[in-house]
Design a protein that fits this description.
The chain contains 9 helices and 18 strands. With 314 residues, the protein is α+β, with helices and mostly antiparallel strands. The longest helix has 19 residues. The protein binds uridine-diphosphate-2(N-acetylglucosaminyl) butyric acid.
């Protein structure tokens, strides 16, 4: 929605809007909480869903030349947006032109906006094994690349063969996986660049056998993870012990700040019981970190991406 006060405050964004093709979505002061699985956080100054790579390049060049901060959002499943929202432009590659999945042999070329569940289903349909673990991750290919997302003992970059990406001036690049440094839950290149697509590779198997593994993974997830709104695991697993197991052993499940609660099902999931704020969740994170440090000398590092400003900032 374009409120009149916002139009007055951000005339440059209107110039940006007119430089994009008609299919692009541009919104001002756009609420972001409902675009995240945690359902907290304030608005984006300007929210853009470009309709093509050329559109995306236009946005990035605009932001670079106007010194406007730019934030890429995936499906919002690993995000904690602070209550004051995000300044500048927030991008999301939801348009169908970024969501294609093309299968050739045992390789899938997947757009950054494609849902991981869709990738897993396409792989199964074509008898490509090894991507079953993506089935229950509620994210996009771009988000999974940025985070080197993992589940069920597998991680995204173990399946990537190459990746196309855009720099902040709108230039496109392609790299083989051997030239992309990655770590546990991180692809540093994507802190400064934006994934466009990736080629994933699996191995042959029957759709039935693949389905069986997907069903088992899904069952495990339902049995061990909460269904309430969350951002998945809040902390990275320390090298010595799983964060969920540690929080459980410390008796911290059920710890609550307002409507933000450490899940009784899995200690590394913080759930929004309805009406939690980002401030509640951030305080809960600090409480748990302090306890882990005091009682077990473990430094818990957040896995969830924390973005934006506190209320009343700036
Ligand atoms: N455990 C407990 N109490 C808990 C939680 C776990 O004792 O409250 C124990 C479990 O019984 C198990 C061990 O800890 O023996 C490991 O638990 P789990 O299999 O749930 O794995 P995790 O290490 O806690 C990781 C990923 C998850 C992924 C699961 C399943 C991280 C930080 N987490 O969790 O990823 O879904 O494995 O493969 O790497 C995410 O990244 O957002 C995420 C949810």
């Amino acid at each position: 929605m374009t409120g009149p006060d916002v139009v007055l405050k951000s005339p440059d964004y209107l110039a940006l809007q007119s430089a994009l093709c008609a299919e692009a979505m541009v919104r001002f002061d756009e609420p972001l909480a409902r675009k995240t699985t945690l359902r907290v956080g304030g608005p984006a100054d300007c929210y853009v869903e470009p309709a093509s790579e050329e559109d995306l390049a236009v946005v990035l060049r605009f932001c670079a030349s106007h010194n406007v901060p730019v934030t890429m959002m995936g499906r919002g499943s690993n995000l904690l947006i602070r209550d004051g929202g995000i300044r500048g432009v927030v991008l999301c590659l939801n348009h169908p032109s970024f969501c294609a999945i093309a299968v050739s042999g045992h390789r899938l070329t997947c757009g950054a906006g494609a849902r991981l569940k869709a990738v897993a289903n396409e792989a199964r349909r074509h008898g490509v094994a090894g991507l079953e673990f993506l089935e229950g991750i509620p994210g996009s290919v771009g988000g999974a690349l940025r985070m080197n997302a993992g589940a069920m003992g597998a991680a995204m970059f173990e399946r990537v063969r190459s990746m196309r990406f855009m720099d902040r001036q709108g230039g496109t690049h392609e790299r083989a996986v051997t030239d992309i440094p990655t770590a546990y839950r991180s692809c540093p290149l994507l802190k400064t660049h934006f994934a466009l697509s990736a080629v994933l590779e699996g191995t042959p198997d029957t759709p039935e056998a693949i389905q069986e593994r997907m069903t088992a993974f899904s069952q495990k997830r339902w049995d061990t993870q909460p269904a309430a709104p969350s951002a998945g695991c809040i902390f990275k697993n320390p090298s010595t012990i799983g964060a969920g197991k540690l929080i459980d052993e410390l008796g911290l499940k059920g710890t609550r700040i307002g409507q933000a609660v450490v899940s009784e099902v899995h200690g590394n999931f913080f759930v929004n019981q309805g009406g939690a704020t980002a401030a509640d969740l951030l305080r809960l994170i600090e409480v748990i970190r302090t306890e882990a440090k005091a009682q077990r000398q473990v430094d818990l590092e957040t896995e969830v991406q924390i973005l934006g400003e506190d209320h009343g900032a700036s």
